[in-house]
Specification:
197 residues; alpha+beta; three-stranded antiparallel beta sheet
Length: 197
């Protein structure tokens, strides 16, 4: 791993990976009954968040349902899974940041592009940290490009289009944050990582 020139922690510069939902062994036998989660569902939830974090809450529930081979979540089963997340958060094993779940203090090392044939995540379902990792990777790979070009490349990276609601504004906000943190310079016409300038 190389030191990221944009100031992210030690980052594998192979930042660009396909998004693939976690592929677990058959977990259809995990008990989802009772009023509080048993150890098996709690460990399952932890493994899923460890494999896919940062993961949006809605994507998490969708993937949980798919891995458990459930056609839909009944309210009691969804409550048990939510209780497992809450228990893990109370134990310090999972971090909850708004609508995203991840492992505590884990830096976002990868930006995940849509895997061919799978549904693209909406803008709201991609964690800000992951969007910033994509922007940092794009700037690292091709320094000196203008702000608009980097945003357009990031839009394409996530499988969105110029007309995708919220895409450009979210990415622009992320670039402003990188700039305000001193992690990029050359604003706005020739963006480079602060360590590269």
């Amino acid at each position: 791993m190389a030191k990221d020139p944009i100031g992210l922690p030690e980052v594998d510069m192979d930042w660009d990976v396909p998004y693939q939902p976690a592929d677990f062994l058959d977990h259809a036998s995990i008990p989802l009954t009772g009023k509080s989660p048993a150890p098996a569902p709690v460990e399952f939830v932890h493994r899923l968040i460890a494999a896919e974090g940062p993961i949006h809450e809605e994507v998490f529930f969708l993937h949980t349902r798919e891995v458990l081979h459930l056609k839909s979540f009944t309210t009691p089963k969804k409550k048990l899974i939510r209780a497992a997340v809450e228990q893990l958060a109370e134990d310090g094993r999972v971090a909850v940041d708004g609508e995203f779940f991840d492992l505590p203090d884990r830096p976002c090392r990868y930006a995940r592009r849509p895997f061919p044939g799978l549904t693209k995540r909406t803008v709201e379902r991609v964690a800000p940290a992951e969007r910033r990792t994509a922007l940092a990777g794009l700037i690292h790979d091709e320094p000196g490009r203008p702000y608009g070009e980097v945003v357009a490349d990031a839009v394409r990276f996530f499988g969105w289009t110029a007309g995708t609601p919220g895409a450009k504004s979210a990415l622009a906000g992320d670039l402003y944050r990188l700039r305000d943190q001193g992690r990029i310079t050359g604003w706005p016409d020739s963006l480079v990582g602060a360590a590269s300038s």
